[in-house]
Design a protein that fits this description.
single chain, 475 residues, mainly alpha, three-stranded antiparallel beta sheet
């Protein structure tokens, strides 16, 4: 494959980007003074120089493998001391706290729960390092309180693959309907609810809308968890009874009642970690990743290999992909750590375009069985289901499948984590919907509809406990 000419232009830009991300900006020093060789008795003062307009940022947008527009900052303007910007991202987050504090026994309880489980808390904090800078940047662009950057700790423990029994997915836990409402694409190849960039933008748009609706961050957050219509009704009910309509005065489910105290507990710990005996490692106040656009069709495992990073680390930044083949027609971009971009392009240039994919798309014929397709492409049925996100109990055949193109695809199966099961329900429409009432159990519901408890759990992603009002889908 011929090396694209633009690659020669892009590499220096990427190197500049990395240098800018790692090198501190020196403090402006005094202008050097020239010492003349001879004495000058009465120098004629130079006329004052006209004011120089501030330089505009230069935006470089290389193609065809395009890095998200790189902004080369102009020289620092006199009077702005960049050295005053915090070097630690946690300090930047603390400086933006603006939501009124909650107090009370629930906040103390939740704070204690985090503090007495240091391993769990450290696991959340370690995951957050990949995403926090981007989230804080987006929050500040919108002028929102930086407490919102901690919300994924409550929603998903900063696990982009988190999936709830209500079919909520990703860092921000969007259910399918709300995801579509905020233009998060969801199909068998890609789930935008798990995409780091897209889901963050959608979540902050939604939170902004909820705050504008209520004019109160506690009610906005309750709406995010419980549903905007549920909070509206609770407020209207209190208003009709001449009761207070603030968050603490509303009647709400236990999960929502505990939701904001959890966020407050995390804010308290981040605000003063030493007071709680928490070791809060610094996070550099600089971008961690870069968005690479206009990428070709490429295997997930190969993209990771070209970037010289483990597949698991690549997926942590690109969790939206649901199959081992990344199709340019689906998203057309990947996310890489800043320090892996140069390696990715260097290694990509050594490959022929035909060697970028070891998987291919196959369109099943009418009434064709998975067993026959698996045998034809020399792959087990279980492996075929896994790489295509087909539930073990689902008889539904997708419109297209990804199947091995060559032996390399089969050899890389072991490298692929068990992530290729998109959280889009594959069971077809529900036969019945049961709303849980007081006294219901999984066994009693299963007996009523003549199904097994195991099927109920599988169809609804259920744990051990039910909640009154919860919807149970019978397939």
């Amino acid at each position: 494959m011929e090396k694209p000419l633009v690659r020669k232009l892009l590499l220096p830009v990427v190197l500049v980007l990395q240098a800018c991300a790692t090198q501190p900006v020196p403090e402006p020093g005094p202008e050097p003074v020239a010492v003349p060789d001879v004495a000058v008795v009465q120098p004629v003062p130079a006329p004052p120089a006209p004011p120089v307009p501030a330089a505009k940022p230069v935006i470089v947008t290389p193609k065809p493998f395009d890095v998200q527009p790189i902004v080369v900052e102009p020289p620092a303007v006199v009077g702005i001391d960049r050295a005053l910007e915090p070097s630690d991202l946690w300090s930047r987050i603390r400086n933006g706290f603006a939501i009124p504090d909650l107090t009370g026994s629930l906040v103390k309880q939740k704070t204690t729960q985090y503090v007495v489980r240091p391993e769990y808390l450290q696991r959340i904090l370690a995951r957050s390092k990949l995403y926090l800078y981007h989230i804080v940047e987006e929050i500040e662009k919108r002028g929102l309180p930086t407490e919102l950057a901690l919300l994924p700790m409550v929603e998903s423990a900063f696990n982009p693959m988190a999936y709830s029994r209500a079919h909520a997915s990703g860092l921000w836990q969007f259910i399918p309907g709300t995801g579509r409402r905020f233009e998060l694409e969801q199909n068998s190849w890609y789930d935008g609810r798990r995409d780091i960039v897209d889901s963050t933008s959608a979540a902050l748009d939604y939170l902004t809308k909820l705050y504008e609706m209520h004019g109160d961050w506690h009610l906005a957050l309750a709406s995010y968890n419980w549903g905007e219509n549920a909070v509206k009704k609770a407020v209207a009910r209190n208003r009709s009874q001449r009761k207070k309509t603030d968050y603490e005065s509303l009647r709400m489910p236990k999960e929502t009642r505990h939701y904001i105290p959890k966020l407050q507990a995390l804010e308290n710990i981040i605000a003063d970690p030493a007071a709680y005996g928490v070791d809060l490692d610094a996070i550099p106040n600089q971008p961690y990743f870069t968005v690479i656009s206009d990428t070709p069709d490429i295997d997930v495992h190969l993209a990771a290999r070209l970037a010289e990073m483990p597949v698991e680390d690549f997926i942590a930044l690109n969790p939206g992909f649901s199959r081992p083949l990344i199709r340019s027609s689906t998203v057309g971009r990947i996310i890489l750590p800043n320090d892996k971009v140069v390696a990715f392009y260097d290694n990509l240039d050594t490959l022929d375009e035909n060697s970028l994919v070891s998987w291919q798309v196959y369109h099943p014929k009418q009434d064709e069985k998975l067993e026959a397709i698996a045998k034809r492409f020399d792959i087990s049925v279980n492996e075929l289901r896994r790489v295509n996100g087909i539930h073990a109990r689902s008889a539904r055949m997708p419109k297209d499948l990804v199947v091995p193109k060559n032996s390399e695809a089969r050899e890389t199966l072991a490298e692929l984590p068990l992530m290729y099961a998109p959280p889009i329900p594959q069971h077809g429409p529900a036969r019945k919907v049961h709303v849980v009432k007081r006294g219901d159990t999984l066994f009693s519901i299963a007996s009523r509809y003549k199904v097994s408890v195991a099927n109920l759990k599988s169809w609804n992603q259920l744990g051990r406990y039910l909640q009154v009002g919860q919807k149970i889908y019978i397939r």
